[in-house]
């Protein structure tokens, strides 16, 4: 059974939303109309998910809620700035849906959030992608990331070959792929580029 806290200050629509989610098997919904009520419930009970559907976003109160129980949050509403998206993400919001959601969209978002899967409307995804620093995102697989971390620790190609139980030629092949992804021509440049993007923290 999943316990869901619905923060919704719309009296009638809030009860409809609660009833709809509650019809799903294994979903138990508690509805509150404010962050104060939410805090009171969270002190008494454990929840698997919080649905934030309040008219006014009060970040301090949301942060307080997050401090009581570190649970995933599904945010219902529109977010217009990258700064706000960033703040909400840091407060535990992993799913965003528009207020004009359909019942199917809501249930899908709830299920995804409970499974630890992020939910972002295409418009928000595009906004994140076009934000400064996101346009040069570089996708690395786990082995490529690990190789860069070892390089940052000062390991040579020969040492990397021993660590990964492969030939030096294979390591060189991996490095060529890494260089191409970052559009660089040296190990040092690749490490600097990866650190600048937050891909490695060595």
Descriptive account of the structure:
The protein is of the alpha/beta class and 202 residues long. It folds into two domains: 129 residues, Rossmann fold; 55 residues, Orthogonal Bundle (Arc Repressor Mutant, subunit A), CATH 1.10.10.10. It has a five-stranded parallel β-sheet with strand order 2-1-3-4-5.
Low-confidence stretches: none
* Average predicted confidence as pLDDT: 85
Helix tally equals: 10
How much strand content do the residues show? 5-15%
CATH superfamily annotation of the largest domain: Response regulator
Summarize the structure.
By secondary structure, the protein is of the alpha/beta class.
Keywords:
Rossmann fold, 13% strand, alpha/beta, 10 helices, 2 domains, elongated, 202 residues
Question: What does the secondary structure layout of this molecule look like, with pairings?
Answer:
Elements lengths: L1 E7 L2 H12 L4 E6 L2 H10 L4 E5 L5 H10 L4 E4 L5 H9 L2 E5 L5 H12 L7 H9 L11 H11 L4 H8 L3 H15 L4 H10 L6
Parallel strand pairs: 1-2, 1-3, 3-4, 4-5
């Amino acid at each position: 059974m999943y316990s869901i806290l619905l923060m919704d200050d719309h009296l009638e629509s809030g009860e409809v939303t609660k009833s709809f989610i509650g019809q799903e098997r294994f979903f138990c919904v508690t509805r509150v109309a404010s962050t104060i009520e939410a805090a009171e419930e969270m002190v008494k009970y454990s929840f698997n998910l919080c649905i934030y559907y309040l008219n006014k976003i009060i970040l301090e109160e949301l942060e307080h809620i997050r401090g009581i129980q570190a649970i995933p949050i599904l945010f219902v509403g529109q977010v217009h700035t990258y700064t706000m998206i960033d703040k909400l993400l840091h407060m535990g919001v992993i799913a965003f849906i528009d207020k004009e959601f359909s019942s199917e969209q809501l249930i899908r978002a709830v299920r995804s959030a409970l499974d630890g899967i992020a939910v972002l409307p295409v418009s928000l995804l595009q906004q994140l992608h076009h934000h400064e620093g996101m346009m040069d995102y570089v996708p690395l697989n786990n082995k490529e990331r690990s190789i860069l971390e070892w390089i940052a620790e000062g390991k040579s190609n020969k040492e990397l070959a021993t660590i990964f139980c492969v030939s030096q030629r294979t390591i060189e092949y991996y490095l060529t792929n890494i260089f191409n992804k970052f559009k660089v021509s040296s190990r040092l440049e690749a490490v600097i580029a990866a650190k600048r993007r937050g891909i490695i923290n060595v």
